[in-house]
Amino acid sequence: MLGRDITTHEIEDAVETGEIIEAYPTDKYGPSYLLFGRTRGGRPLHIQVAISRMRVVTVYEPDPREWIEFRERRSPGETW
Fold first, then answer.
1. What CA–CA distance (Å, rounded) separates 44 from 68?
2. pLDDT digits (tens, 9 = 90+) for 11-36
3. Whole-angstrom distance, CA of residue 7 vs CA of residue 13
4. Which residues, 6 or more positions from 59, have their beta carbon under 8 angstroms from its beta carbon?
5. Strands 55-60 and 32-38, sheet pairing
6. Distance between CA 40 and CA 32 in Å, rounded?
7. 18, 27, 38, 41: most buried, per Cβ within 10 A?
8. CA atoms within 13 A on the CB side of 14
9. Are 53 and 30 spatial neighbours (Cβ–Cβ below 8 Å)?
C-alpha cells in the first residue's frame, strides 16, 4: 500500500494466514472484517476487507502499543 511500504506479496501472505479479529457489519464500505496475519518474513499486518466486493479497504502494520499480541485492542491508558 502506498506510503506504508507494504507490498502486494506481503498482503497476500498475511491474508492467507489471517484470522478475523474484528467485524464491522455496518461499515460505510459494506460489511467488513479486520484480519490479523503475518507475512512470510513474520511482519504483522492488519487488513480490513469489505466482503460485498471482496476488496481491501486498508492495510497497516499494527502498533504494539495499541494491540495485545496484535489481536486485541488495548484499553485507553493501558500500558504495554
1. 12
2. 999 999 899 999 999 988 789 999 99
3. 10
4. 1, 4, 6, 11, 14, 45, 46, 47, 48
5. unpaired
6. 24
7. 18
8. 29
9. yes
Q: How much is the pTM? A: 0.71
The CA distance from 9 to 1, in Å, is 11
| Cα angle 1, 66, 11; round to 5 | 25
- Listed in sequence order, the residues at least 6 apart from 77 whose beta carbon sits closer than 8 Å to its beta carbon are none
Q: Read out DSSP for the chain?
A: -TTTT--HHHHHHHHHH-EEEEEETT-TTSSEEEEEEE-TT--EEEEEEETTTTEEEEEEPPPTTTEETTTEEPPTT---
Exposed/middle/buried for residue 52 (C-beta within 10 Å: 0-12, 13-18, 19+):
exposed
pLDDT tens-digit profile of 1-16?
Answer: 456 789 999 999 999 9
